[in-house]
């Protein structure tokens, strides 16, 4: 059966600060530089979510892109767009994860994976990749 990859891209704006509370202020400044500025800074994040699967002969689709749009809305856009990642997203606020793009890609993966599990339990569709552009130059890919 042919494996096909389906991607949807969204953009969201969020602020954050790179800071490890277990380190001293000086160590934080040394490691994170300007990204440790106490009042934070913002990004226009671009995120691509790719799923893989075989084409359902009944629909001609791997997965309905409208369903993928809803998954992305619920797991990324609603909780993160125009938010402060460190204060508004529980994985960063409560679990001590530093809001690097690496960690953000894992948080997004986990959220989508959880939702896909409940929405697509009987389907062959799998989450394949989360790709985030923090800036035009800084890009992170996570494949689970
Ligand atoms: N491994 C990581 N390193 C850094 C991350 C990250 O998520 N993972 N994030 C940052 C900052 O959030 C920062 O906003 C990006 O820094 P920087 O590349 O300096 O920002 P610019 O793209 O604006 O850089 P210019 O070279 O000035 O264009 C830092 N490191
Ligand atoms: Zn940043």
UniProtKB/TrEMBL annotation:
Keywords associated with the record: Lyase, Metal-binding, Tetrahydrobiopterin biosynthesis, Zinc
Top EC category: lyase
GO cellular component: mitochondrion
Record-linked SUPFAM superfamilies: Tetrahydrobiopterin biosynthesis enzymes-like
Record-listed E.C. numbers: 4.2.3.12
One Pfam assignment: PTPS
Cofactor: Zn(2+)
Molecular-function GO terms, alphabetical: 6-pyruvoyltetrahydropterin synthase activity; metal ion binding
Gene3D superfamilies per UniProt: 6-pyruvoyl tetrahydropterin synthase/QueD
GO biological process: tetrahydrobiopterin biosynthetic process
Transmembrane segments: none
Pathway noted in the entry: Cofactor biosynthesis; tetrahydrobiopterin biosynthesis; tetrahydrobiopterin from 7,8-dihydroneopterin triphosphate: step 1/3
InterPro entries registered for this protein in UniProt: 6-PTP_synth/QueD, 6-PTP_synth/QueD_sf, PTPS_His_AS
Family: Belongs to the PTPS family.
Record protein name field: 6-pyruvoyl tetrahydrobiopterin synthase
Organism: Tigriopus californicus
């Amino acid at each position: 059966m042919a494996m096909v990859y389906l991607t949807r891209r969204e953009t969201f704006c969020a602020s954050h600060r790179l800071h490890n509370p277990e380190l001293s202020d000086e160590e934080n400044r040394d490691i994170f530089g300007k990204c440790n500025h106490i009042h934070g800074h913002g990004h226009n994040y671009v995120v691509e979510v790719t799923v893989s699967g075989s084409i359902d002969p009944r629909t001609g689709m791997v997965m309905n892109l409208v369903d993928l749009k809803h998954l992305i809305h619920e797991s990324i856009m609603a909780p993160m767009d125009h938010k402060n990642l460190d204060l508004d997203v529980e994985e960063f606020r409560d679990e001590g994860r530093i809001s690097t793009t690496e960690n953000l890609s894992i948080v997004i993966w986990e959220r989508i994976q959880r939702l896909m599990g409940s929405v697509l339990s009987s389907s062959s569709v799998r989450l394949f990749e989360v790709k985030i552009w923090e800036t035009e130059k800084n890009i992170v890919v996570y494949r689970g």
